[in-house]
Amino acid sequence: MHSLVKECTETLRQRTRCWLIEGKTTLLSEKKYPFPRDKLPIMCKFNKEQDYPSFTGYESGNRSILMPSDGGWFKAKAIGIPEGISQPVYHDHKIFTYHLDAEERMCHISLLWGFMEKGEADSEILGNEMAKALDMPIFLVGRGLYSSINYISFRNTQDLFTYLKNERGEEDILKKFLENSTRTEAFCIFYIVPSDLRVDEILYGLIFPRAERVVDRDDCKAYVKWLGSSCAHNLRKVHDHGILHGTYFVPKWFNESRYQRIIHSNAYTGNHVVGETETWIVDYDLARQADPDNRSDFDDEIEALIYLQNPLFYGEGYIKNSLRNDFREELAREFKEGVNIGYENDVFQIESKLKRRMLKMLTQTKKAMWELYNLPAALTRARDYIEYVIMKKKISEEEFKRETKSIDGPLEDICSLH
């Protein structure tokens, strides 16, 4: 376990509780699976009192958990929802959840809430084979099968949460499940990964006003350019093997007329993880074979890496006068330049010491900014909402100094971790 990655993970992620229920596993390595092979982890609500064994892990996205492992981190992906009114319900040895159709904000044509359908799990396995061929240190431990899933269908997340908020209580929701649900099966995937610190996660602290005062401007620019080049270099490897990380376009309709396309892509910074001195691609649930004669597919993924949900670029709610941030714009240009360098099979090089120092400092910066603006610890990929908070919440100089005074990341301290 790399101590700096562990420290940063503990700083940025909150723990959540999971349970072990009966299930089927297909394991490539039983030694790396931390549970009995006939048990599956799940994040859910129990309708009745239960005595299933439980454990805690760090949240990863909205449906996965992390646990320290000898080889890095054990990741269980698609095992439910960690909290909130949309958590799956476990009742009488059955799992009750929701099914959603495609919508603008989703990256799936079909989604089983909290879990994986077979096609998504198959894509993960395809992507793992590709990662192995590219010598990326992502190890597939195996996959699990939840054989008794029952779901209610909704068109999109808005319809789902409108329904949940209007229901009188959990008993009414359970009654709806028991009377009107469809049975299916679902899958989860288990990995050993070297890190789960997402590149966009590390960058988020830099979009706030006065962020340039807690980091060295030149060092930060160099680090961001390295991140862009390293991510793009990995994406180029994927493309050279004839694989797309996973990009689709979905029509957007207005008054029954199609007037534009909405891009859904895995090839964005949230699916690149960063360690002390390297980055890697993860999350292959949309991976597919590329059409070698269609160059635009590859270009779309380069554009997605640069712009899609990248916190350095302004969101859709950008208002020039109130959000204008010269430092953020400067970093956005550095990241884009880095991507262009990396996709040409080069990497913008910086010293390993600087990579470690910046990883620690940007982790501290993000945590400080989250606390300064009173943002939920579990909030991820909410650029437009964060920009709205920045516009509405005025932070005094005293508040800023108090919250950021502990950000230091001295190089000698970081190097002493190794």
What descriptive keywords fit this protein?
418 residues; alpha+beta
The total beta strand count reads 18
Helix content: 25-40%
How far is the N terminus from the C terminus?
Answer: 11 Å
Largest sheet: 12 strands, mixed
Number of helices: 13
Can you lay out the helices and strands and say which pair or pack?
Blueprint: H1 3-12, E1 15-22, E2 24-27, E3 39-42, E4 45-46, E5 54-60, E6 64-69, E7 72-77, E8 89-91, E9 94-101, E10 110-112, H2 118-133, E11 139-154, H3 157-166, H4 170-180, E12 182-193, H5 199-203, H6 217-240, E13 243-244, E14 247-254, E15 257-265, E16 272-274, E17 279-281, E18 288-289, H7 295-307, H8 320-323, H9 326-343, H10 352-372, H11 383-392, H12 397-404, H13 411-415
Parallel strand pairs: 4-8, 9-11
Antiparallel strand pairs: 1-3, 1-5, 2-11, 5-6, 6-7, 7-12, 8-9, 9-10, 11-12, 13-18, 14-15, 16-17
Helix pairs in contact: 1-10, 6-7, 6-9, 10-12
State the gist of this model.
This protein is of the alpha+beta class and 418 residues long.
What does this structure look like?
The chain has 13 helices and 18 strands. Helix 1 (3-12) runs parallel beside helix 10, helix 6 packs parallel to helix 9 and helix 10 (352-372) packs across helix 12 (397-404). The protein has helices at residues 3-12, 118-133, 157-166, 170-180, 199-203, 217-240, 295-307, 320-323, 326-343, 352-372, 383-392, 397-404, 411-415, and strands spanning 15-22, 24-27, 39-42, 45-46, 54-60, 64-69, 72-77, 89-91, 94-101, 110-112, 139-154, 182-193, 243-244, 247-254, 257-265, 272-274, 279-281, 288-289. The strands form four sheets. Strands 1, 2, 3, 4, 5, 6, 7, 8, 9, 10, 11 and 12 form a twelve-stranded mixed beta sheet that branches. Strands 13-18 form a two-stranded antiparallel ribbon. It folds into two domains: 3-193, no CATH class; 199-415, no CATH class. The chain is an alpha+beta fold. 37% of the residues lie in helices and 25% in strands.
